[in-house]
Amino acid sequence: MTENLHIRAQKFFTQSLVEGLSHADQSWLDQHLHECAGCAREIASTQELLHALRTVPVSIPRDLAARTQLRVRLRAQESAQTSHGNFLLWVITGFSWFAGVLSAPLVWRAFAWLGNYLHVPKLAVEMGFVLWWAVPALFAVAAVLHQKGFNISPWRGPN
Amino acid sequence: MSAHAFTLASASSRSPLLFAAVMTDETQTLAQGLSRRDPGLLDHLIELYQHRLYRYLLFLTGNPALAEDLFQETWIRVLERGHQYNAKSKFESWLFAIARNLVIDVSRRKKMPSLEDLGDKESNQPFDPPDEHSISALQLLVSRENHQAVQLSLLKIPAYYREVLLLRFHEEMGLEEIAAMMSAPVSTVKSRLYRGLAALKSALPEGSV
């Protein structure tokens, strides 16, 4: 029965550290610790352990903050340049798409005329027209992918 | 920012409600600055959180060089994902969550078994202290005898216990805050704290502390 009281005291103490205790349980624990030197010693040792844990000295590497600040600033500049480049790329893509839509009827007529003139089958003319549209778009996608691949490559430092 | 710190200190001494209001203003300002990628703000935050973040990473990895790399990488992520900080949680919780995810990524990439457990939602493996000789260079950073004993014992216990012990007893974070940071239920945090305390005590050498 006495052993159970000590176990209960230990349990309550740990509980008080982790999630807190009700007023009644805290009073019981205080009373028990007042009466039981063994439990009081055990709990003092745990408190000392936690104090040591809280005050463990950790020496931060020299200039870590300054080096990090420099690296963050460099990355910010790099990102700003990339986003400016992306913006230009989108403007050019948008413009070329708009021009492509406007010129589509003319290009279609030109392909039809060329097909007639060279006696090329209709399917080949249609495929040529599709390629006329698809090739620049494929180049644009390749350019974007290339740029993104460049962005996610690891940072090697300023030197 | 130092003016803000002064505002916070005086507000907290007057009223908890006022403190909460100032705190909300503060985190909103912080969120706006982060989404603008304000370089001055980032410099200030790096300076302000350097000790806490480095200590967290060092305790988690037990490797000063890796902790240093991850420290820098964490701030790069803060720069790039600053717009995702919504000011609903404390900045330090968000910051530590980023650092934690980086540690998990690195541990998976480099196959570091002691850290891989951090990614588990619930780890119920039995506690098994590793060989003393396998402990990393972290011990070199310790000066006093008790601290050395505690630090060595910390390195003997699994990383997921070390993490919650640090957050709860060093960073003095609340259970809900830790749970949100770890994306785990509060019950997991509690059970890791109970088990972590028991593991830390049993890992201490006889007669120390």
Tags for this model:
heterodimer, A: mainly alpha, 2 domains, 0% strand, elongated, disordered C terminus, B: 209 residues, mainly alpha, Rna Polymerase Sigma Factor, Chain: A, Arc Repressor Mutant, subunit A, globular
Write the layout of secondary structure elements.
The complex is a heterodimer of chains A (159) and B (209).
Chain A: H1 2-18, H2 23-35, H3 37-54, H4 64-118, H5 122-151
Chain B: H1 2-14, H2 16-35, H3 39-61, H4 64-81, H5 91-110, H6 113-116, H7 145-156, H8 159-170, H9 175-182, H10 186-203
Helix pairs in contact in B: 1-2, 3-4, 3-5, 3-8, 4-5, 5-9, 8-10, 9-10
Rounded Rg of chain A: 37 Å
What structural category characterises the helix and strand content of chain B? mainly alpha
Please state the overall shape of chain A, judged from the principal axes of the Cα atoms: elongated
List segments of chain B where confidence is low: pLDDT < 50 over at least 5 consecutive residues.
Answer: 1-9, 121-143
Number of strands of chain B: 0
- Give the helices and strands of chain B as they follow along the chain: HHHHHHHHHH
Specify the structural class of chain A: mainly alpha
Folded structure, characterized:
The complex is a heterodimer of chains A (159) and B (209). Chain A has 159 residues and is mostly helical. Chain A has 2 domains: 2-54, no CATH class; 64-151. Chain A contains 5 helices and no strands. Chain A has helices spanning 2-18, 23-35, 37-54, 64-118, 122-151. Chain A starts with a helix and ends in an 8-residue tail after the last helix. With 209 residues, chain B is mainly α. Chain B has 2 domains: 1-118, RNA polymerase sigma factor, region 2, helix turn helix motif (Rna Polymerase Sigma Factor, Chain: A, Orthogonal Bundle), CATH 1.10.1740; 120-209, Orthogonal Bundle (Arc Repressor Mutant, subunit A), CATH 1.10.10. In chain B, helix 1 (2-14) runs antiparallel to helix 2 (16-35), helix 4 packs across helix 5 (91-110) and helix 8 (159-170) packs across helix 10. Chain B is globular, with a radius of gyration of 18 Å. In chain B, 33% of the residues are buried. The model of chain B is unreliable at 1-9 and 121-143 (pLDDT under 50).
